Structures are given as structure tokens and as C-alpha cells.
Amino acid sequence: MTEPAGLIEAVSPLDAKTTLDRLQAALTSAGVSIFGRVDHAAGASGAGLDLRPTTVLIYGNPQAGTKLMQIDQRMGIDLPLKILVWTDEANVTRVAYNDPTWLASRYGISVADAPVLTAMKAMVANLIESLKNG
Predict the structure, then answer these.
(1) For a pLDDT cut of 90, what percent of the chain falls above it?
(2) Does some domain include residue 2?
């Protein structure tokens, strides 16, 4: 399966629930707002369908996101940011998120105009990397 453009994927050594809980705790302690969790597996179950664990964590920093939307309000369709955590068919926990710099390029926003993009990308990459270190 090919990775869609702008999507960054990683493997977590933890189960899906622990991965989500740790990511949420780390984001919260970094001062990032958690706007919600969407449990697609629970939704599927409610519809009488089976789906392996698949949850979206919705998060953001209004200070950073607003600066981007001041440049181009359409970016609001992609904000707040999201992290998808799922268990694949081999029982491996996977994590995916949109590359903030790729999202911005969609609107012609350059990193030079919005350096917060690089910080956003680095923060999420570091959080996911920290899963591997316990």
C-alpha cells in the first residue's frame, strides 16, 4: 500500500489504547489542547460492523492555528490537526498524521511565512518517537 501524499506514518511498539493515551498526555503536558477522540471502531460496532481499533485524536494550539488561518482561512478545513492510531491486520499499532508543512503548501503558505509549521512537524515527530523510548 502506498503512502498518500503528505501523510507521515510510523509504528508504535505499544497497543493502540496505550499509544493514544500517551500521545494525549504528552500533548496536554506540552500545552496543546485536545479537542476530541473519534473512535471509528466503536462507530462501526454501533452499525453492526467490525473494525480493528481505529481512533483519531484531534488536537491543536489556537495560537499557532490562528496564525495559519490569518494567512489563509481555508486552512481551517485542515485544522485542528489530527493523529490516527490503528491496529493493522498483522496486529501492529500504526500512527499517521498529516505533515503540517505539506498541508500549508496546499494553500501556498511557505515555511518562511509561517515558521510555526516546522515546530508543529517536529513536535509531533518527537512525540511519536518518544513512544519507542517508553
Answers:
(1) 69
(2) no
3 domain-assigned = no
Provide the pLDDT confidence category of residue 134 given band limits of 50, 70 and 90: low
Domain count, the chain: 1
> Mean pLDDT throughout 30-40?
96
3-state secondary structure the chain: CCCCCCEEEEEECCCHHHHHHHHHHHHHHCCCEEEEEEEHHHHHHHCCCCCCCEEEEEEECHHHHHHHHHHCHHHHHCCCEEEEEEECCCCCEEEEEECHHHHHHHCCCCCCCCCHHHHHHHHHHHHHHHHCCC
